[in-house]
Each structure stands twice: as C-alpha cells, then as structure tokens.
Amino acid sequence: MQYFVQQLINGLTLGSIYGLIAIGYTMVYGIIGMINFAHGDIFMVGAFTALIVFLILGALFYSVPVVIALLVMMIVAMLLTSLYNWTIEKVAYRPLRGSFRLAPLITAIGMSIALSNFVQVTQGPRNKPIPPMVSKVYNIEGVSVSLKQIVIVIVTALLLALFWYLVNKTSLGRAQRACEQDRKMAALLGIDVDRTISITFVMGAALAAVAGTLFLMYYGVIAFSDGFTPGVKAFTAAVLGGIGSLPGAVLGGLMIGFIESMWSAYFSIDYKDVAAFSILAIVLIFLPSGILGRPEVEKV
Amino acid sequence: MSDASPSVNDAILQVEHLSMKFGGLVAIGDLSFQARRGEITALIGPNGAGKTTVFNCITGFYKPSEGMLTLNRRDGSSYLLERLPNHEIPARAKVARTFQNIRLFSGMTLLENLLVAQHNKLMKASGYTILGLFGFSGYRTASAESIDLARHWLEKADLVDRADDPAGDLPYGAQRRLEIARAMCTGPELLCLDEPAAGLNPKESMALNALLMDIKDNTGTSILLIEHDMAVVMQISDHVVVLEYGRKISDGSPHAVRTDPRVIAAYLGVEDEDVETVLIEVGDEDVIEQLDTGPDATHGPGSSSSYFAGPVTDTVGHSEGERVTVSKGASKAGQVDARSGAAARPASPAEAKPTEKPSAAKSSAAKPAAKAPAKPKTPGDSNRGGGNE
Amino acid sequence: MAVTTSPERDIVATPMQRATREALYAGAIALGLFVLFIGLRTDQNISNELILVQRWWLLAVVVVLTMAGRFLYVAYGQPFLANQKIVDVATGLLPESMAARFFRLPYFIAAIVTVAVLVFLAGSLDGLLGPGLAGYARFLRALAIIYALASVMFYFRTFIHAHFSALGITALALYPIIVVLVLALYGGSVAAGFQGSLKWVDNYGIQILIYVMLAWGLNIVVGLAGLLDLGYVAFYAVGAYAYALLGTQYGLSFWILLPAAGAMAAFWGVLLGFPVLRLRGDYLAIVTLAFGEIIRLVLINWREVTNGSAGISGIPKVTFFGLMTFNVSDPNYVAKVLDIATSSAYYKIFLYYLILGLCLLTAFVTIRLRRMPVGRAWEALREDEIACRSLGINTTTTKLTAFATGAMFGGFAGSFFAARQGFVSPESFIFLESAIILAIVVLGGMGSLVGIAVAAMVMIGGTEVLRELDFLKQVFGPDFTPELYRMLLFGMAMVIVMLWKPRGFVGSREPTAFLKESRAVSGSFTKEGHG
C-alpha cells in the first residue's frame, strides 16, 4: 500500500509536468488546428534558460534563497521562452496559415530540429547537471515525499488555476474560444485573430517554461535532446485527454504520469514508454477522439 | 428476402417505418414510402424536413434507428439497405448518390473522376491489382472499356471537351452534372440526387432536366430526387413525396401534391386569420410588427400569405446536416390538420386558392410558392400567388 | 476595430524608414532570443562544475547581422520581389527573371576560366597561396564548377524539363562511372580513381538514394492516399532487423531476405493499420508516431534478441547474385574472379547500382499502381473519403493496401540499409528519421516522384556538403566543425523551403489517364487528405 501511494505521488509529479506541456499542444491545436511539433523543444529551451539563469545567480551572488532563485528562474524562463514561441509563430507558422495543411506541420518539425540543434551548437552537446536545489524529503508513514514534488504539484495547481481563470473568465479567453470556433467570424466581430493566436503561443510557451524549470529542479540535469521525449509524451497526453480540451490535457498528463510510474514500479522500467504509447493506441481505438474530446461528426 | 406482397414488384425502393434519432432529436419519424422502378420520385419539403437524412439512411451513411429499407434489383434480388455496410450499398445494391455540397475529387481530372467510379469493376478486371501490375491484357481491355463508358457519360453531361481538366476547375453547374455522370458510371439501378438543381441558373437547370430525363428514358435507372426547385420537380418527376419535420405529409402525383392543402400550408404558411396565432406560437415578434404596419388590405389576401414562412427559410441557405428542432406549433401542415378537425374546414382562401386555379398554371404557380418565403416582400410573387382571387 | 492592425500599414513610411524600424525590431528580438544562449555558454570546469563562459562579442555580431539582414530585406529585397511581379507597361512583359540575370554568358566564361586555372594549379595551390588561402581557392573552384553546371542546365532547361526522367535516370546510372573516371584522370591512376570514388558513391550516391527510396515509399501513404504517417521509420527498422537477425542467425542470403523483409514490413503495416485506420487526421499521425516509438523501444529493450542499444554487427554482405562475393578472404572474391586489383570500391559501386535498382522498382510500381484502380482509389481517398464510399470503394482495404505497399518499400530499404552498414542499432531508427523522410515527401511536392527525388538530393546532399567545408576552420578557428551545423541548417532549410513553396517543388499532379491530352493538374486543386 505504501509502495502504491509512493508511486501515486511520483506519478502525480511526473503527470503535472506533462500536463503543463500538454496544455501548450492542446491550445495551439484548438486554435489553429496544427500540431506544434516544436513545443517539446520550447520546453527544453525553457529548462535551459532556467539553467543559465541559475548559473548567473550563482555567479553574481554568494547565496540566494531557493524560493527567490526558483521564482527568478521561472519568470525569466517564461519571458524568454515566450519570446521564442512568439517568434516561431510569426516567422514559421503565420505565413502558412490557411495554406496546405501539411506545410505548417513540416515547418514545425523543421523548427523543432533547428531549435534543438541551435542549443546543441551554442551550449554544447553534453548533459548539464546542476547541484540539487531542494533536497528536503519528508517521510510520512513510510511514504517519502520530497519537497521538490510538493513544489511541483503546488506550482502546477496554482498555474492551472490562474490559467483556468484566464481562459474562462477574461475577454482574452473569450476571444480565444471564439477563434477556436470560427476564426473568420471572430475576425468579423472585431477580434484581432493574429494577436489572439500570438497570445496563445505565448501562454503555451510560458507554461512549458515553467514545466522546464520544474523538470530541471526535479532531475537536476538537462541536455539539448531532452525536449523530444517529454514533448512526445505530453502530446500523447493531449491526444489521450482529447486534443483541444484543456481539462483533457491535464487529465491526459496525469494519466501518462501514473501509467509510467506504475508500470516502472510493478512491471518493468524498460517498457514504461511502450506502455504509455500502447495505452494511447488502445484508448484511441475505442474512443477515437480521446477521453474528453468532442466526437467528430462526420458531415455528409 | 423478397417481399410477399405483389404490389412491390415494381417498387425499386421500399421505405418502411423509417425513424432516425440524433440523441433526443427525431429527424425522421416513422416514414414510409415507395419509389417505383423506372420513375423519378421526388422528395420535397421545407429545409430541415429531414430529406438529406433519408438519403443518408438509404445510402448507408447513417444507420437508421428503426425501420426497413428494401431495395429490389432488376434481377430479382433484394437487399436490406440498413444492414449493408456503407460501401457495399453502391457496390452490391447498385444505389448511387450525389451530395448536396458537391463532393468531387477536385484534384483529379473529369475522366479520372469517372474512372474512380468504376473502381469495383476494374479491380476485378485487374485481378485485384496483381495481374494488372504484370500487364495482363484483361486489364487493358477493361481499362479501355471503362474509358469508353466514361466518355459516354461525359458526352451525355456535355463535358467531354473538358475531360482532361481538373474537376475543381469546372463551373458550379458543370460540377453538378459531373457528379451525376460519376454516379451513373457505377452502373446504378437507383440514383439518389441531393438537390441537383441548387445554385444552377435557368439554362443549367434546363440542361440538368434533359440529362435526368435522358437517364430515365435510356438507362432504366430509377431516380430518387431531393429538390427545392419546383420547376424541376413538377416538370420531371412522376411521383412526389412531401416531408415536413421528418414526417410524410403528402405522397402522390405532382398534380395531386400541388393541390394538397397540407403541402401548401407547409410551404406557404397557413391562411391569414391564423397567421398571428402561428407567429405568436413561433415567437417571431419582428414579423408580427411588420404585419401590423405592413401591407395594406388592397393587396388582397394572397399577398400576406407569403410572409409567413416564419422560421422556415427556403432555398436560400442549405444546412449541411438536416437537424430539426421543432418548436411547438411550428408545423404548418399540422395546423391545417388541427384546424380542419376543429372547424370542419371553412372555405378559407389559402386552401381554396390552388384548387380553383386553372390547370394551365402548372409549374409557374408552384414555383413562386416555393420561392416566396425566401424573399417575403416581393410584390410580384404575392400578386401572382393571389392572382386568381 | 480593424481586424488586423499593423502599424506599418497605418503610417505611410518610406522604405528606408520602414526598413530601419523593422531592423530595430528584429535586433531587439534577436537580442532577447540570443542573449542567454549565444551571449553565455555553459561549460564544465576542471572539477566538473558548470560555469558560464561569456561571449558578448559573438552576441553582438549575431544581433548586428540579424539587423542588417532585416534591413536589407525590407529596404531592397521586398521592393525587388514586388517589382518582379509588375508587368512593364511599355513592353507588356514581366521583368527579366532573377534566373536569367543570374546566368549570363560572361559569368559563365569567367567561371570556366576560374575552374580551368584552379584545376591547372591544383597541385601547387598550397605552395602559392599558403594553406589558408588554398582552402578558399578550392571552395571557389567548387562554386565555379557548380555555377558552370547550373548555367549549362539553365541554358538547356526546356530540353531538360521535357526529358527529365530519362536524363535523370541516365545521369544516375552513369554517376559512379563518371566519378571514377574523373578521379582516375585527376589522380593519374585507376586505383586512385576507385579509392577516391568511395566517398562520392557512398556518402552522396547511396545515402541520397536510400532517402529517395524511403521517401517514394512514404509517398504512397502520404502523397497518394493522404494518410499522415509519422512512424514510417518503424517499417524501415523492421526490414533492417529482419535482414540483420535472419542473416546473422541463419546465414540466409540477401536475395532471399530482401523480399522476406519487404513482406514482413508489409505485414506489420497491415497489423498496425487495421485498428488505427478508422482514426482520422492528427489522431492517425500520433498513433503512427507512437507505433514508431514502440518499435524502437522494443528494439532497445528486447536485449536477448536484438542485443539492445549495442545493435547487431557482422551482418553479411550482399553477394553478386550468389556468383561472386565482396569478401576479400573469400575464394569467390570479385577481384580474384575477374582478376583485377583489390579495392573496396567495387562493393560500394555494386551497392549503388543495387539501391538504384530498388529505387527504380519503387518508382515503376508507383507509376504502374497510379494507373490502376487501386492507385486511383488512393488518390480519390485523399481527395474525398465520403465520395469514395458513395462510389462503392471499400475505404478500409484501400487504406490498408496503401499502408502495406508503403511499408513494404520501407522494408526493402531497411534490409538494404542493414546490408550496406553491416551493422544496425536502434539509434538509426529515431523519430527524426521519420520526420526527415516526411519532410522530403512534402518538400518535393506530395505525389510527385521527380519532386521528391530532387528534394532528397537537395536536403540530404546539401547537408552532406557541409562536411566538405573544412576551409571554414580557417575563418572560425580550428574548433569550428561545420558538421555540427548540419541539422541546424537542415531544420532551417525545411522552414525556408516550406515558406517559399508551401506545396513543394513540384506542386502539380500528372493525371493517370486522359482522353485527348495529358495536362498537369495545378496543385491548388489537389487536397492533402485528412488522415
């Protein structure tokens, strides 16, 4: 039982990170119907930015309180990563909007390749380890919960609450949902569609940057190629939950997190990713539009 | 499989107790009708009446909630369409269809479009690809024959000059004809046409009529037709079925249907004195206001009848899936029924009008009747509509 | 309440003002993007701790270059491009195209002279100019050769356009011979010719042709049937491992295993396709991606069979149809049988012709299938699936055949790959490979064999060329390795080509049948499928 609860907590931590990344995928998909393949690398850029900020803080000050360090890392990562995603959207996706459907997909893959290799070229190909930032571990009835995990879950919950408010209660969120439904009509009603889409990318990137910072804090290491696997898994999570649905993305992220940690705990750690992908395939076969996705009506 | 009753031998399609529900929404309720072999049967009704849904059930795109759809082929075999998989309906039961919003393979040439339609035949001839891949002559002959058939239909549809152009490049009317030609290339016994005349200009409409008559006369293919253009319907169809809100309100020859008060009510609205009650029920205050300040009495009773299409807009916009939301009391045919039951049919002008009309009025009288709701304030229409009073 | 409010349109500004402003924006954005990543570099010190190395000068250079580039583009590039489209009022003609301005006789003569002089001086370049400048000179020579060849092609462009396939196949068939001959003349001996040809035949020829074959295989699935497959590399892996395992375990010959690998990949294609083909659009894409990853992860983790990440080595070489072998120690070694000098180039040249043959087989089958009902049904499926069903086409089996056929060619290419490398490991079958293959299909123009071949040549050949740019070390210092920038440039090239030609190099489609004359269908009519 303790073992199970332990895995549950591990899964929750992992799932929070996936969920944060998955939101970026699902929002972009919802609003312009494209798979932003570069999003995993955006996450990696976020983590790398946090790493560099961490090193700058270490170099400038003798000691910085961990909370402040994390906060600064997160904020700078959010800003710079948003700038990356904003630029990518403007340069690589916007000119292709409304053209051939596969074209933006290819530019997204191209951007993904370019981003990870850009980081490789500028920062070197090696793993970048940092000393542990938070190492406190609580032991509650045989279940060990690290402070890192608590921080991840709390930060995720706070961000999701903020995000939920933004999307559901503000005019910005209303504009976004309107663009999702019908971009042309939204434009006719005076919504600045380009701006709304840009903001969507910025929001997705900001969440991915937070996920990157948390990832760096949790694992203590990042490399230029680390964007792909979490990216694909987060995308899997988004599809699993029903792409286009925001609660679905979080739910999917948590599910992938649980599947991974449970599978590694009870079966084999080697096949945890295989399990996650297989479950995706099985879910989609029975629920072709994901768990919370709206079923696609075939119009004749 | 075949039905016992003798009268069905000449029925190519029998629809019995067909119902289709989407969630709690009844799109078609207990619909039964027959389409006779070698005839053109028209399915008409206001927008949202469930016509396309009937088509989708017949051609297997929807599985009906209830009911039986029997197709009797010329060779005596019968098929229960609701049990066949989608793609086997054209392949085995020989039912072909066209679509309301044209579905051509727009990046392929006209000829290729017609060759795709002969897929199953050519697949067999090519030995399911394997023999054809190694260049067996059987496929080459079949391929040449299929091109001949395609040329035949291109000529019929008057498109042979553009055979090597992409289908997406054709003007609208030509696309409609191409879609019919493509459906004919599958060698159907029943051809289902979903609004073939929608959006055509009069000249194109004439060409379409000619094509349909040609198909009927020369191939023996029976036609089931959804149409809003009453000129087309009255001119070419042998048999008309009228739907309103998913239910059949009339069924018979074009002439009989045209004079059926329930049909007129469905299309024109009900008579003047009932209008306000209907509108109140429908909740359309704008129209009531227009009515109050609107036309003077000198226009006669006929003029106002065309205002009352109320919520049912006709021929202007075509919804893609015909979803019906029936507001209480919106069915005008139902009101006619109710009224005739309650008041033992007073000789009201709206009902009497068509019966008094001389037979020469034919399609010209029916056409404005159908079109009228789309453009409510056209005096010409209303004058013509009430011209005989 | 304007729909799109862009300040540029509201204020009438001269191009110069606009360019300056745009350049400032671009500079600010570049500064933001690069300040941490270029301005600072994370490095490990002696005690393995991360430290930051400052590179502000590099950051400044990059930002200034970005600004200058943006300025030049807005100030000169955009007006120039706009002018290209304006018809001259007096003559009614479009202005001279860029290509016509670029390829001119005087330039051509200059290029020829440069090449001649530099080839003549080839041996003494180092002595004359020193090693640094000699590197530039060689690069200049390469550019001049390329320019001269391009000019010739431009001059004969109508002829080339009319006979593209025939010319292309001839050129490909003659390529190793020409390479060997040129290098033999240059090096002065036949042996040197063979030795020198290794790189050209293997790195360029075989490498590019493998991608051509893979892309042509994927083209059947994506380009014709319109099913978006992001896990194509899985079938490549199945083929490679089928040959690697069966070849090493049972010693079966390549010629038996080649069809077996194809069949196995096709079988996997059907197995995967059956449950997932009713999925639509991006769901299909993600499931195929997941499938590709599953295959790779199984290859990594099923160590008893696949030897895990270490891979399988010692895969037998292909024999010359069982008559001769390419193993030096073997009594049937090709050089012994034919009584010629030993060289490893024979095997590479043989492999080159083998993959060329496989490519041509793929092309032949694709062209044949397109004219058959099944091929037409694939394209119809891409155009409109619902209409297909209304015409009695069984869409499930049609999709499955497309999947299986595409997978089969992937399997062929995989077994060839295993035979060529003599070694396979899961490293070769990562998602990036799927992405590259898909990119080649889309960049080439979906469905167009010629376009795809050109795209493979440009993208794969182009990145291989970067390996040759050693002289850049003279500029950027000895630490500079151009190869590192290969994938960065590849990714950027993908973006740029897509922005330039969203429908790929060849946007039009050849009809499969015609009544009077065959006219290419413009890409604006074809659909890309939703699957």
TrEMBL record, chain A:
Keywords: Amino-acid transport, Cell inner membrane, Cell membrane, Membrane, Transmembrane, Transmembrane helix, Transport
Membrane topology qualifier: Multi-pass membrane protein
Statement: the UniProt record of this protein carries the keyword Transmembrane: yes
Domain of life assignment: Bacteria
Signal peptide: none
InterPro entries for this protein: ABC_transp_permease, BCAA_transport_permease
Localization annotation: Cell membrane
A Pfam cross-reference name: BPD_transp_2
CDD domains tied to this protein: TM_PBP1_LivH_like
Residues that span the membrane, as ranges: 12-35, 42-62, 68-88, 100-119, 149-167, 199-222, 234-259, 271-292
Family per similarity comment: Belongs to the binding-protein-dependent transport system permease family. LivHM subfamily.
Name of the protein in question: Branched chain amino acid/phenylalanine ABC transporter membrane subunit LivH
From TrEMBL, chain B:
Location of the region described as Disordered in the Swiss-Prot/TrEMBL record: 291-389
A Pfam match: BCA_ABC_TP_C
Name of the protein described by the UniProt record: Branched-chain amino acid transport ATP-binding protein livG (TC 3.A.1.4.1)
GO molecular function, one term: ATP binding
Record family assignment: Belongs to the ABC transporter superfamily.
Domain ABC transporter: 13-270
Keywords for the protein's UniProt record, in alphabetical order: Amino-acid transport, ATP-binding, Nucleotide-binding, Transport
Ranges of compositional bias, category Low complexity: 338-379
Transmembrane domains' residue ranges: none
Xref: SUPFAM superfamilies: P-loop containing nucleoside triphosphate hydrolases
UniProt superkingdom: Bacteria
Keyword Transport set for record: yes
Automatic annotation (TrEMBL), chain C:
Chief place where the protein resides: membrane
Listed transmembrane segments: 23-40, 56-76, 105-124, 136-156, 163-186, 206-225, 230-246, 252-271, 283-302, 349-369, 400-418, 430-463
Pfam families (UniProt xref): BPD_transp_2 (PF02653), DUF3382 (PF11862)
Membrane topology: Multi-pass membrane protein
Subcellular location: Cell membrane
Record-given protein name: Branched-chain amino acid transport system permease protein livM (TC 3.A.1.4.1)
Taxon lineage: Bacteria, Pseudomonadati, Pseudomonadota, Alphaproteobacteria, Hyphomicrobiales
Domain High-affinity branched-chain amino acid transport system permease LivHM N-terminal: 21-118
Swiss-Prot/TrEMBL keywords: Cell membrane, Membrane, Transmembrane, Transmembrane helix
